[in-house]
Design a protein that fits this description.
- The chain has 193 residues and is an alpha+beta fold.
- The protein has a single domain, classed as endopeptidase fold (from Nostoc punctiforme) (Alpha-Beta Complex).
- Helices cover 28% and strands 18% of the residues.
- Strands 1-6-2-3-4-5 form a six-stranded antiparallel sheet.
- α2 crosses α3.
- It is globular, with a radius of gyration of 17 Å.
Length: 193
């Protein structure tokens, strides 16, 4: 029993402690503030500063909307994902032929973020019920042909009551009714503290 308690304590130490709890409403506001600023979509590999590296604010990919919104609250996904991958590389997807973590790109890949969120205990059941999705939740999709996508659930809804999504699917950061447009593969929520 002591051994089990010791192992559990070690596992918990491996997970990052967020300095402050992530505030769902602020996450939505910080993502929304990118509308009209991030106008393009650029999936090219880029050399980034570490920690705190970013592509130009005028562009990015779907993950950059989330990365920027979380950084505004003090959570640097680049650093958090990289540090976890350095210790637990084998549990992350091996889809890109890498032999070790790469702080320039790992946090910008949806499958890696899905793994990191699961490892933080943030995974929720995927549902086809609009009421199960709250403002500030994170959702991932399979767009087909091996393409994945990620977005943040808004505090606004469509006329049909379906939560809008803050995301960048190719034309800059937008707030759109796409929650059920593609197959949902993940649903994540930061715990309220």
């Amino acid at each position: 029993m002591r051994l089990l308690a010791g192992l559990l304590a070690l596992c918990l130490l491996a997970l990052p402690a967020f300095a402050e709890p992530i505030q769902a409403r602020r996450l939505v506001q910080d993502a929304r503030s990118q509308i009209g600023v991030t106008l393009g979509y650029d999936p090219l590999y880029r050399q980034l500063d570490y920690p705190g590296g970013d592509v130009p604010l005028s562009t990015g990919v779907c993950t950059d909307v989330l990365i920027r919104a979380l950084r505004a609250q003090g959570l640097d996904l680049q650093k958090s994902v990289h540090e976890d991958m350095r210790v637990h590389f084998a549990v992350y997807p091996q889809s890109w032929g890498l032999k070790r973590p790469d702080s320039n790109i790992d946090h910008r890949r949806v499958p890696n973020l899905m793994t990191w969120f699961k490892r933080q205990g943030m995974a929720l059941a995927v549902s086809q019920q609009a009421a199960d999705y709250r403002a500030g939740d994170i959702v991932t999709w399979d767009l087909g042909r091996g393409l994945t996508h990620i977005g943040i659930v808004s505090d606004r809804a469509s006329a049909q009551g379906i939560p809008l999504i803050l995301h960048n699917i190719g034309a800059g950061t937008r707030e759109e009714d796409i929650l059920f447009a593609y197959r949902i593969t993940g649903h994540y929520r930061f715990a309220a503290r």
